[in-house]
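Sequence only, no structure available. Ideas?
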Amino acid sequence: MFMKTNVMATIQMDIKLAEGLAKMTSEERSMFLNEMTDDEIRLLEYSWYVWARPAQRLPEVQFRIWLIQAGRGYGKMSDINDLIRTEDGWKKLGDIVDGDKVFGADGKMCNVVKAHPIQYAKKTYKLTFDTHETVICGEEHLWYTETRNERRQILRGQSKEGKVRTTQEIVDTLKHFKETNHAIPVNKPLQLPEQNLPIHPYVLGCWLGDGSKSSSAITNVDTEVWSQIVKCGYEIKPSNTITHSISNGAETQRNDLGQYQSNGSMISLLKEIGIYKDKRIPRIYMNASYEQRLEILQGLMDTDGYCNENGWCEIAQVKTDLLDDIFELVGSLGIKAHRHTGGKRMLNGEYYGEKDYVFFKTFVPVFKMQRKLDRQMGATKAQYRRQLYRFIVKAEEVESTPLRCLTVDSEDHLFLVGKSFIPTHNTKTGAETIRLWKDMGYKRFALVGITPADIRDVMIEGTSGLLQVCPPWDKPEYQASKRRVVWADGSVATMYSGANPEQLRGPQHEKAWCDEIFAWQYPQETWDMLMFGLRLGNNPQVVVTSTPKPLALLKWMRQQATCTVTQGSTYENQANLAESFFSEICSKYEGTRLGMQELEAKILDDNPNALWSRKLLDDNRVVKMPNMKRIVVAVDPAISANENSDETGIIVAGLGSDNHGYVFADKSLKGKPNDWGNAAITQYNIWKADRIVAEINQGGDMVESTIMTIDPKVAYRGVHASKGKYTRAEPVSALYEQGKVHHVGTFGNLEDQMCEWEQGMDSPDRLDACVFAITELMLVNRPTQVLVPGGNESSSKWRGEK
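Reply:
I predicted one. Tokens follow.
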């Protein structure tokens, strides 16, 4: 396998490091991390081969197809956790023990009372704040928030505080009508001890803002800045009217060879703290007292900052690393900061690129220069209260991730989280493989997923997608309108959907990543088109990450001599998964056919007791369908709306001009009545359907009321089934066996139910909806009645008949 020498060397070093870390005790790993520099920690965070298990690394043998078929939770690893700032330095969350000291939301040190085991939440959410920060947490994670009404009561003196709420409670009450509801108070400044700093913090701030990166010279036109520097005990030596060298009085020293040597001068000190020719805020300054950190910011703002008439303070930098430090510095002072890229960077009327800046509004004096300070302090207080909170503006459910909590003895039981390692699973293996190929010099990649939304939410923007696994110094740009991800070196990864094979007609690629291929609507057709275009370079390859399903394509892949198969069960990773996951999920499905597929990653043969088989569905599968004579949307509603509820089956099917039935959409979902009602009506309008058909055995008039409340013009019929599901399904199964019903593409979840369900099992929602649809289209003989296998039902529920 072709690999660049430097990439191979890095991989071998990472593997050796992984082996070393695995042999260390918890205390040894903590000491190891504390001895690393910030840059080394950043590199370690993005070193995939350090954290991946051997089976998740790129195979060493020659292959064209790398098929990773694995059970649920196969890739989750508990030893990749958040880094928490402790009294002794950075420490992994997994290594924190009872008694450790961390920072509370009040900025003070607090004790870890209990370091809890890793947990696997039933629901995991990503919360987005108005500062564009995001936090991933479980549905039972506790937050202190203040709602819109509580903030008003606090302002009026009618209340003193908000309440502690779970993530789920926040999600359920995210908006107050159309306004943002929940807000979390901004943390107080970190309380750290005063440090013996080599350069005065204000002077260092001035140099970071307007100084020459390779000398002690500072260029600034404001005499007040020079006066402040002199007050700090430094000499200024003018080079011209606006540029002055800063001196602390240290004499130049040379060694016996006449070479300059360290003498405590400004240049020597800049070199010693590691920022000569590389402007950053050194860690010793980040760990300094509140007053010292504030003086760094004041130096930066006096030389390079700005305050507008409304009191908004802003500082822009070309060097993004320095701007990252400034953002962290402002936050450590208890100030709510925003980071933004946009607008034009202009100098003397010339355009110098996009503006990257940090901005904030505060009455903490971030300037010493009087004219800037007067503008800041004299500004209106309008909207100032909003700067005392971080508002939760968005909540979305994301893929489950191993989580861990700490119980601390701070007054509010909150603690602050610093850097974090990225949780790893099958998706991360695919993303990391693309990243590795890119580092090896390949330029053209295909990203193929279930739908465009899945590619975006999982493969690109997901917690283990491309934007997360790529380090800050090589992070690509996601260009949504062009369906692609682009790196600075010109490498491009283009998105393609398994629901639209024609997108792949023409484009050529060197490498590809296919995710959940066996859930694509057109797996065979999309795969064929991908293979035709996978012809660039000297070694075209594809990595496939998916839970296995007994489709013909999977069986074909495994038979190829050029296919390398990695198979892993959930149980291989039991040590790194929460006990609750095994007690609640694994024990429920252990020993069942579904468990064999989803947990053990086994390829199942057909269930002999089911009414359908994979071969039957494959034999009748089509890519295109004729003109439709009639179209219906069938709904099998769930009778409750909570986390344990069944899905609501929503299937769209039609009767073709050839009098055959065609199933062409599965839009089933888990949600409240208004959710599935809107989804069903959306499909009704998209497909210009003749009718919505819904079972009313358990939902009764609720189903009709839901549909009619949303759109009273919809043609609707409620079906009351008087006999069992198996009896109703048999005539529909017979139509499939006669070759009279076809699936237009592949519908993985529906077909799983069809080929696995047997009499006596729990009700299959998607299958039920499919049976209703085909019954309505092909087994109803009279317009005034709906014939259901096992009994008739009058048409009293007709609405808006077409």
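Residues 71-81, 418-426, 569-603, 782-802 have pLDDT under 50 and may be disordered.
Hope that gets you unstuck.
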